[in-house]
Amino acid sequence: MLTIASEVEVLARFGRALADPIRCRVLIALRQAPAHPAELAERLGVSRTRLSNHLACLRDCGLVVAVPVGRRTRYELADERLGHALDHLRASVVAVAGERTCAEDEEKGCCR
């Protein structure tokens, strides 16, 4: 069973991973299907080096895993429940999104 401190750390790691738009796009792409880095880089329009850094972050956060496939490596979500969590988060944000943006709220202490 997770302690409160470890539960907070898990959520903080998830938050750090979601803090970057490219990492969000990677997670959404992997939600659709596992992929090799070259395919992901092309699909997302980023360099392989940049993608590699983001994949390393997502691995360190425990959100994706690298699966050896012959001489190549395929990436996928670490747990299928992450895909469901992403779906729920996206639905929740759409439900509360309005005219205000997070950047506007930052002045009031939100999103720091």
Automatic annotation (TrEMBL):
The keyword DNA-binding applies. One of its GO terms (molecular function) is DNA-binding transcription factor activity. InterPro entries: ArsR-like_HTH (IPR011991), HTH_ArsR_DNA-bd_dom (IPR001845), HTH_Metal-responsive_Reg (IPR052543), WH-like_DNA-bd_sf (IPR036388), WH_DNA-bd_sf (IPR036390). GO terms for biological process: response to cadmium ion; response to lead ion. CDD domains: HTH_ARSR. PANTHER family: HTH-TYPE TRANSCRIPTIONAL REGULATOR CMTR, TRANSCRIPTIONAL REGULATOR-RELATED. This is DNA-binding transcriptional ArsR family regulator.
